Amino acid sequence: MGEAGGKGVTLLKVPHECAKTFTMLENNPEVMNELAHSIGVTKELSFHDVYSLYDADMLAMVPRPVFALLTTIPMTEAWKQERDTEDADLEWYQGAGPAEPAIWFRQTIIHGCGLIGLLHCVSNGVPSELIVPGSELANFLKEAVPLGMDERARLLNETESMYQASEAVAQKGDTEALKPGEDSIHHFVALVKGLDGNLWELEGSRKGPLNRGSLEENEDALSERALELGIRRLVDIQRMAGGDLPFSCIALAPSV
Fold first, then answer.
1. pTM for this structure?
2. Does residue 48 carry a catalytic annotation?
């Protein structure tokens, strides 16, 4: 991974080929629930399939409230252009510490986007208050939260227990895992309602957490407003370019 940065920020100088390589995870409840619960997410919370962003009956199948959505989205030309335009005006994130409105992890791990997406979902908002004390996740966040962007990325890269937990579930999806050296066009994006009431778009390959707008107290991460501010906005970008946006989406909500 090459060096990039903004004013006053020193980024990791780790060549892409030297970063740790994970087996890319599949975005489905079976995989993500096993991983989440193994590292210390309370079993009171689980991921559930979201089969539609528009059909009211299908949306009603998801337990509420929804605290976060974890999506995988292909990098289309239209989305790339929108991302590049937005990122061009942004400085690299410099937040750190418990006062951060959103805990964000920069991705330096090859194929680590699934684990990072899960961490974004469970480290923010209400789920962050329900982590099992003394668990691997609780101990990891205790170390990670005070750190800046680069040190936090390095900690995740060097935390062997997180790597082992991710690898333990990596072969349990329905599709064949990527082979070493293969790349994926899909990006994991988490859309999380923070404790500050805002909808945060969190992706490790951006310059930092992105505040997509405020939600009312009774609006969760699957509410009409959250969908319009979040994943439907991405679908609309692709539709305006003349195509559909294939995606997967699961919701972090109460277990049933």
1. 0.88
2. no
